[in-house]
Predict the 3D structure of the following.
Amino acid sequence: MKENKKLVIYGVGKFADFIIYSFIHDSPYQVVAQCVEEAYISEISETDHEFPLVNFDNLEKEFNPDEYYLFITVGNDKLRERIYKKARKKGYTLATYIATNAIYPKNLKTGNNVYIGEKTGIQPFVEIENNSFIIAANIGHHSKIGKNSLLSVCLLGAEVQVGKNTFIGLNATIKPKIKIGSFNIIGMNSKITSNTPDHAIFSEPATKIHKLSYKDISGKYL
């Protein structure tokens, strides 16, 4: 039985640093170690933290699943899903993080290994399935986010259904009552107004560089 909330983080790099910062400064968990699979350990010279870096493949020998929580900080959905399944087989309880300044209802339904970051806004009757990350997004009421998904600074209307393993990027907007397929990639600034099939990719053209330079207009219009 866990008497305290000691936490091992799976992952290294800047995304892991971002998640670790959240747990250290805004959660009841105490981060005690980082881990990766044995195949990757030799490629990592050091981390930005004082925690030991340990082998995930035999993690349970050093960090008993009955005493430690685990959180998987991997952006890639398929890799995160694979590690999640291995962690569950090892018997680990996966932590969930909800920022104290996130806006969400008391009856919010979440799975485990869920991250809900600061400035996120979630209306009532929303469900977020296992292993999904919500970073500064706004989600309308009665919406459902499928497992292994990642939403970053986007806007979902009410009653939106997001399939599993889907990414929705910066400033993307989803019309109310839309069904987003599984394994979708919805890029920055995309506007989705109709249901999407599985394995779909959406993107908006990037803003083009202007032929005029800063020197051409500096002092004239600025």
